[in-house]
Amino acid sequence: MKTPAALTEQFRxxxxxxxxxxxxxxxxxxxxxxxxxxxxxxxxxxxRMPTVSLRTVYQTLNDLAEMGEISRLEVxxxxxxxxxxxxxxxxxxxxxxxGMVRDLHVEVAPDLGDDVPDGFEVAGAELVVRGRxxxxxxxx
Amino acid sequence: MKTPAALTEQFRxxxxxxxxxxxxxxxxxxxxxxxxxxxxxxxxxxxRMPTVSLRTVYQTLNDLAEMGEISRLEVxxxxxxxxxxxxxxxxxxxxxxxGMVRDLHVEVAPDLGDDVPDGFEVAGAELVVRGRxxxxxxxx
DNA sequence: TTTATTTCTAACAATGGTTGCAGATTGGGT
DNA sequence: ACCCAATCTGCAACCATTGTTAGAAATAAA
Lengths: 140, 140
Description:
The structure is a homodimer.
Chain A: H1 4-13, H2 20-29, H3 38-48, H4 54-67, E1 71-73, E2 81-83, E3 91-95, E4 101-104, E5 121-132, H5 134-139
Helix pairs in contact in A: 2-3, 3-4
Chain A binds a DNA duplex through helix 4.
């Protein structure tokens, strides 16, 4: 994801308006490595601007995802996770117990070639490694 | 997943009852490569036994998943998909346009080692390859 | 700066997938 | 055949997310 300042410029250049709600979402995502849910982005935003609705947060997250500035992950933790790191290709580590998601910088390089059916247009591949994080494992 | 007959035996040996509803679900899943949703399992079951409720199908799918006889996938198509193939490790190919899910027999072999944090207990890894299947690509 | 235009936001309702619950039903051991 | 625990159905509730709409607010135009 670009910096909030760069996003502001980009939105403006596309005829989109710069609202304090949008800027608050940009800020909440910037350099955020936690792969937040819409709900947690909303919490962060509300801490500064108590009137922002969850609907607006969803809207902005969808807009950013559509522009390719963030990516939306479905990792089976119930709600979608949003990842501002679209610059560096990477995968994810998920704790099935607490829902923590962490970047995983691992080369997958699957030799897809032979088992992809003819005519299938591959758009991308995501690896999700599941397990239990240390603090959850320590709990019992 | 074991055969319906073997599952029947297994259920019985665990003190669980063999109901026609459960058998219908076993049959609907047996050798089913489509990664059905709960809804489509229900449709198949209802074709033979019109009174079976969706709730019971969910219940049985959850039971089977808990026993490790099937696995539940979240691939971002809106609803969970159930996969009776737990014998052979494999990954998945997903058409983002029609929701088709297909097995992908590809070796991923990620050298996880260095980027997994200390103390994280890895339970498994799933690769999802996304794109457009031929028939969807042909459509426009 | 004021106005006009057009987008955005908030609130609320609605949706879709899934689960919780309660009472009626039924499998299977006796 | 009887009994009891397990199961089933039907329905309500739940959660994450999206649709809708009227009012508010940002930018462009005057």
